[in-house]
Design brief:
This protein is α+β, with helices and mostly antiparallel strands and 485 residues long. It is built from twelve helices and seven strands. A hairpin with a 3-residue loop joins strand 6 (458-464) and strand 7. The protein binds adenosine-5'-diphosphate. Adenosine-5'-diphosphate binds next to helix 9, helix 11 and helix 12.
Length: 485
């Protein structure tokens, strides 16, 4: 599934989930409205029918009396019409309330019908006195009818109350169910959202870490990238894997080339240096002062070239994992004296206050690669210190040993390094400012770091622009008796 379809699907899912409670709530409201309408209709229809029957009862009573006093067709058909009215409205009440509720009124109506027909019969037979007596006899019938109607009316009111209670129950249960549905929909929406966020953010964050690692110079693609996903993130991971593979290959080719080129340069440089030395010794005849000056320049440049080629070779071997240090017992004090001796002349020449100090207690011996610590580590750090410190400045080398760690510190009072560049100075070819570029290669500190780390140690730099720079090296000290690491 593509990221686009996943997002669209999540959106559709969320809309659907939020619609379920909305639709349910709307349907419950609709039900309540229907209930209210039917309640109102039932109630008012039933009351109207009761009113009609009440009116017919009164009319029938009036017609009966009038008919006994003055028998004629108008009153007779009036009585029968009122009886039909009653029957019709009782039928309507039957339908909405059920036959049980109207049974007593129906019985009264039937008795009234029988009484009416009997009255008609007596009057048609000319028995006026008997008809008057009979009317007196059935006089309680309309009252029983009104009493029956009152009971029906009470029943209608009772039914209304029950219907209102039922509507209240429906509304309460609808409110409960709708709230529950909203809650469930919210939880499901949250789950769906989190699932989508997780499915996208986790691989993206891994990809972002991997990209940061490439930016740091680590060209191996991590195993945990989602290479087998079929979406855009999978495509990105596969392209990223291919890209790192290509970068690693280019890096290897570059290192191979640098290593080969430096190796090939070594022989001609040695030949040049050798012939320059022979020239200097006068083997090819005497030279005038101008020629000696040029020869000194050639020798100076040859030395720079030799140093650069050696640095390039060392670095490429370190990076290929092919260069190992050769630790052996080293007398720390002797090492410090040698370092002081190498830079004394330069210090005097540049009029720099240069001192090498060992802080007691110092161990007699430590297991180190003597040449690499002396030339590549201290040599490089001191060359830089002298390079960036003006005459009248101060340079110190301090050695100390504490808690099984040999600490070496090189401090100068030179130009310093801006804070934002401190993190980069150990990268190869990194140089601060144009002056540095004119004087070096940017490889020295990268080699220093490799050598220190190969000893299991660490190096860090602190600096203040205009006040100077300090390099602190900590190397776990092993005495010659310890087993090799
Ligand atoms: P380079 O051969 O150019 O000196 P390095 O790797 O030895 O290369 O140093 C990298 C950069 O760090 C230098 O170019 C310089 O700008 C800065 N640097 C190193 N040491 C010092 C120092 N002691 N004082 C000021 N800047 C320094």
């Amino acid at each position: 599934m593509t990221v686009r379809s996943r997002l669209l699907l999540t959106l559709a899912g969320i809309i659907l989930l939020m619609m379920i409670p909305a639709v349910y709530g709307a349907s419950q409201l609709q039900r309540l409205e229907e209930l209210a309408v039917s309640l109102e209709m039932d109630h008012s229809d039933a009351l109207a029918s009761i009113g009609q029957i009440r009116a017919s009862l009164a009319e029938l009573d009036r017609y009966q009396r009038s008919h006994v006093a003055d028998p004629n067709d108008r009153y007779r058909s009036g009585m029968r019409r009122e009886l039909v009215f009653m029957a019709n409205h009782l039928e309507l009440l039957n339908r909405s309330l059920g036959p049980g509720a109207t049974a007593s009124m129906a019985a009264v109506r039937d008795s009234l019908e029988v009484a009416t027909e009997r009255l008609v019969e007596l009057l048609e037979a000319g028995l006026a006195q008997q008809a008057t007596d009979y009317l007196e006899q059935v006089k309680p019938l309309p009252d029983s009818g009104r009493a029956a109607l009152n009971r029906i009316e009470e029943g209608v009111d009772e039914r209304g109350r029950e219907a209102v209670e039922y509507a209240q129950q429906v509304s309460a249960s609808a409110a409960r169910t709708t709230s529950l549905a909203v809650l469930v929909a919210l939880l499901l929406t949250l789950g769906l959202g989190l699932w989508t966020v997780d499915a996208l953010s986790r691989p993206l964050s891994r990809l972002s870490d991997a990209t940061a690692a490439v930016a740091e110079g680590e060209f191996s693609a991590p195993e945990n990238l989602p290479y087998d996903r079929s979406d855009e993130i999978g495509d990105l991971s596969r392209s990223f894997g291919a890209m790192t593979g290509r970068l690693a290959e280019l890096d290897r080719l570059k290192a191979e080339f640098v290593s080969l080129a430096s190796h090939e340069l070594k022989t001609p440089i040695n030949v040049i240096a050798g012939y320059a030395e022979l020239l200097e010794e006068g083997l090819y005849g005497d030279m005038d002062p101008r020629q000696r000056e040029v020869l000194a320049l050639v020798q100076d440049q040859t030395k720079s070239l030799t140093r650069l080629v050696n640095q390039l070779l060392d670095l490429s071997r370190f990076e290929a994992g092919g260069l190992r240090i050769e630790p052996g017992p080293v007398e720390i004090r002797t090492l410090l004296e040698e370092v002081e001796g190498s830079f004394r002349a330069l210090a005097d020449q540049k009029q720099i206050d240069f001192r090498v100090e060992g802080r007691e207690p110092l161990p007699e011996d430590a297991v180190l690669d003597h040449d690499r610590i002396r030339h590549e580590v201290l040599g490089n750090l001191l060359s830089n210190a002298f390079k960036f410190t003006s005459p009248g400045g101060r340079i110190r080398v301090e050695a100390a040993s504490e808690n099984g760690t040999l600490s070496l510190r090189v401090t100068d009072s030179g130009i310093g390094i801006p804070k934002d560049q401190l993190d980069h100075i150990f990268e190869k070819y990194y140089q601060v400012g144009d002056d540095a570029k004119a004087q070096g290669s940017g490889l020295g500190l990268a080699i220093v770091k490799h050598v220190v780390e190969a000893h299991g140690g660490t190096i860090r730099a602190t600096s203040e622009v205009g006040s100077g720079t300090t390099f602190d090296i900590d190397i776990p000290s092993r005495s010659p008796g310890d087993a090799p690491a």
